[in-house]
Design goal:
By secondary structure, the chain is of the alpha/beta class. It is 54% helix and 14% strand. Strand 3 (69-74), helix 4 and strand 4 form a beta-alpha-beta unit.
């Protein structure tokens, strides 16, 4: 059994979900592809019209469904296609960072980058850097943690019922 877990840990590779703004960061990722700039294949890029349109629930769902890290990419401040969308994304980012810390999720698993359409190399750097940091942190395994938390809650509920029964006797 132990050798199986060792083999699994050697085979594990980080899973990064990347939410990229259509007008800047996604275009930069496209530029990286056309320019044959290679970056780690561990990121799954999801195009959104604006980084400000990323609902915090998207990030929480990504982690809940097995992502080891989440990367948000948006236009540089002052260059947003929708005027202030990236400022909205920045406010949400800081809020989410606090929520994730409370959940016990390390800061290195959640990142915000400003990347313009002409910065294909920066996309490569951001993704590769994030993959390496998440790899160093190891697997998050949040879905497994949910099951552990559920078992803890069931145990606490059973103990509460037992105390209630003893109090009524």
């Amino acid at each position: 059994m132990e050798s199986k877990s060792v083999a699994t840990s050697k085979e594990w590779e980080p899973r990064i979900v990347a939410f990229f703004c259509n007008w800047c960061t996604y275009t930069a990722a496209d530029l990286a592809g056309v320019s044959r700039i290679k970056y780690a294949p561990h990121a799954r890029i999801i195009r959104v019209m604006c980084s400000g349109r990323i609902d915090p629930q998207f990030v929480l769902d990504a982690f809940a469904k097995g992502a080891d890290g989440v990367l948000i990419g948006g236009c540089h401040p002052g260059d947003c296609h929708y005027i202030e969308g990236n400022y909205k994304a920045l406010r949400r980012f800081h809020l989410l960072k606090r929520v994730l810390q409370e959940m016990g999720i390390d800061d290195g698993r959640f990142r915000l980058e400003w990347i313009s359409a002409s910065e294909g190399e920066k996309v490569k750097g951001a993704i590769n850097d994030m993959v390496e940091k998440v790899r160093a942190l190891g697997p998050l395994r949040l879905p497994d943690r949910f099951q552990e938390w559920d078992r803890e809650m069931e145990t606490m509920e059973e103990e509460r019922r037992e105390k209630e029964v003893l109090a009524n006797v």
